[in-house]
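Researcher: Quick test of sequence recovery. Tokens follow.
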């Protein structure tokens, strides 16, 4: 009797996943909880552990194929089943071979001869058979490369990035090129320079982002509204606190936590904004979990600050720092990526002053925090002018359940919340 492992649910709203890489091959012995493949969803790239110990008999889903949660992805034979089969054939029962152990000094050489049954090591970083092949191909010492995978495991991207950063890569001539040139060169530039168009396969993460954005724009009728707010007092507050904050906490105090705090407080008063349209019903979320966008190279992740309305500015700043570091070091978890009910996007970090965000499906809205800029504004008494720090707040809403009145009321309260941030405000 053989057992099937199925595509797991890597998040409460995740319905499918794409196989990015198989970490095992047919014939490999796998221990329970050993990673057997990497799966990409719209939320995260995650290693999938084996549900039980056994031998890989058949891989059912090829790399880059997307399947629904619950779909069988691999067939395995348990050790008990193997022993039973051997007994039926009157063969001598033997103790299963122990898991192969590799030391860093011999890992690459061993990979060229045989594939280890599992990724266990007694010293040095752990890595999959596919990574071991790359290490052998480029003649690399795994101890020289920083692993960003689960528990410091070396990933294929770690090796590829390391090779790309070397001043003189020693890649074999047979290595297939990442970029394929079109057959017909085109002439461009004032000097008549010949250039070629290039075609590069999209990464699994980029394809997941594309699918998610298409779904959002296809299913959600987007409405948009922008307002501006004077945040001169907020600028003064941060200026007075940032040096002491960094000395105490060890990371910078940015403007972003203040905006997340202001939005979270406004969502308490406007639960319809903190909702989603599902199956022709309005699902109002009672937890306020703020999704934020974090870039890693050309990949975009949207981790979640849970219960943001209950956190201080310092607490929000701490979560932003933790989640951003987890994304950039490859340690973000599926739990960190799920449960978001509203998205706050820090477009101001790019110098943007007005933008329209695409809603993070199935949420009902997304707000873009634009860059803070100095403008000449009339004084409150109307008798003169002052230099003010102004910011635009750009809100995209799902027009199926939100209209201009709801959007305007929400933004009005976000503006009022921003006005509370002035010198003397308690960050903790």
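Model:
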């Amino acid at each position: 009797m053989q057992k099937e492992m199925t595509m797991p649910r890597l998040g409460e709203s995740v319905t499918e996943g794409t196989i990015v890489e198989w970490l095992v091959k047919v014939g490999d012995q796998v221990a329970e909880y050993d990673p057997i493949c990497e799966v990409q969803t719209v939320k995260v790239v995650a290693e999938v552990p084996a549900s039980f110990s056994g031998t890989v008999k058949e891989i059912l889903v090829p790399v880059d194929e997307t399947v629904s949660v619950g779909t069988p992805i691999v067939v395995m034979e348990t050790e008990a089943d193997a022993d039973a089969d051997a007994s039926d054939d009157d063969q001598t029962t033997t103790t299963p071979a122990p898991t192969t152990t590799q030391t860093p000094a011999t890992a690459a050489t061993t990979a060229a001869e045989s594939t280890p049954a599992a990724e266990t090591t007694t010293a040095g970083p752990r890595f999959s058979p596919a990574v071991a092949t790359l290490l052998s191909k480029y003649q690399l010492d795994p101890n020289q490369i920083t692993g960003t995978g689960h528990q410091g495991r070396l990933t294929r991207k770690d090796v590829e990035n390391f090779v790309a950063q070397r001043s003189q890569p020693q890649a074999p001539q047979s290595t297939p090129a990442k970029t394929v040139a079109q057959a017909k060169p085109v002439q461009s530039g004032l000097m008549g320079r010949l250039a070629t168009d290039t075609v590069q396969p999209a990464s699994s993460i980029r394809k997941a982002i594309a699918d998610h954005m298409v779904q959002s724009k296809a299913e959600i009728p987007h409405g948009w509204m922008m307002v501006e707010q004077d945040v001169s007092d907020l600028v003064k507050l941060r200026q007075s606190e940032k040096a002491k904050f960094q000395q105490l906490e060890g990371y910078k105090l940015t403007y972003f936590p203040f905006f997340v705090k202001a939005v979270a407080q406004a969502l308490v008063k406007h639960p319809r904004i903190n909702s989603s349209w599902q199956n022709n019903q309005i699902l109002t979320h009672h937890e306020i979990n703020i999704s934020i966008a974090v870039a890693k190279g050309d990949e975009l992740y949207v981790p979640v600050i849970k219960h943001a309305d209950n956190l201080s500015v310092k607490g929000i700043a701490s979560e932003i720092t933790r989640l951003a570091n987890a994304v950039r070091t490859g340690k973000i978890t599926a739990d960190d990526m799920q449960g978001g009910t509203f998205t706050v996007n820090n477009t101001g970090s790019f110098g943007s002053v007005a933008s329209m965000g695409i809603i993070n499906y199935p949420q009902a809205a997304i707000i873009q925090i634009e860059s803070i800029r100095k403008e000449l504004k009339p004084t409150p008494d109307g008798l003169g002018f002052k230099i003010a720090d102004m910011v635009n707040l750009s809100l995209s809403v799902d027009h199926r359940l939100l209209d201009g009145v709801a959007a305007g009321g929400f933004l009005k309260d976000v503006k009022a919340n921003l006005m509370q941030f002035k010198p003397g405000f308690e960050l903790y």
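The CA atoms of residues 137 and 172 lie 7 Å apart.
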